[in-house]
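INTERNAL AUDIT FORM
Audit reference: QA-55
Scope: verify that the stored structure record matches its stored sequence.
Auditor: D.O.
Record contents follow.
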Amino acid sequence: MTLLVSATPSSPYLSIVVPIFNESESLAPFFERITPILKSTGLDYEIVCVNDGSRDTTYEQLCEMRAEYPDIKVVDLSRNFGKEPALTAGLELCSGDIVIPMDVDLQDPPELIPEMIAKWQEGFDVVLAIRSDRSTDSFMKRFTANSFYKLFSRVSDVDLPDNAGDFRLMDRRVVEALKTLPERTRFMKGLFAWLGFKTTQLYFKREERFAGEGKWGSWKLWNFALDGIFSFSTTPLRIWTYLGFGLSMLSVMYLLYVVVSTLLYGNEVAGYPSLVAIMLFFNGAILMGLGVVGEYVGRIFLESKRRPIYLIREKVGFDEEKG
């Protein structure tokens, strides 16, 4: 059992964690907008920027910007590992008493940060930023996102708040608890929700991207949703157990029907086409079931290798004392 002791320092240190991939156009607007807001809080702070193997000039710009914004700390990963591992790296390397992960595209409004800190000072361990208005997203994206949140909460033991992204405030002890979770396949929204702690919510209108293009296409979002469900639920396996039982019962009933019909009425057994259709149906069901089992076996295989979640090529700015 791990005892997480709560402590509210008189002058807390603030960490902003920003995973970044090919966002060279967004960097300058982001720092210009967030820096005055962070200074207005009166807190010492750091901005931990995790370069997730960007192929543009993101890393070079981050290093150059440290001359103007000395509170920037840069983590350069050895390749593109994905947003979840990059976010994990930032959370593990930051040192704040208060930690706020957010995106660099300014769809997460920095203006919400002082309100989050005020809620933390009231005694909350987690302050969620909930998107109350997603009109900037397409209808299909809003529909699929809402469907996923509802489905995830139904099939897993974790209650995933609707329209909550990674943008949130977390107390240091929440981050320390998160660091004890060893999963290699990271679904951060689920991990955040699984932790629990005393939580409140703030609402904001989601803005358009300030610059650049989104990195999440339909196929990538689909795979991300599957990762979330398979990482937090065994319901897909249970569904195929029930389906297999149901199909077995139907097969027995059909067999009895054929035998009784033949013995009593002398009816001929259904011909070749119906037999082929039945075989194709059952073979398809078997293959789908094997696919579901394969998803879980594949995850066990990946976890068993215990490879690191990410690798760091270089760290810049971490030698200075915090504050």
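Auditor finding: record pair retrieved intact. The longest strand covers residues 13-20.
Action required: none
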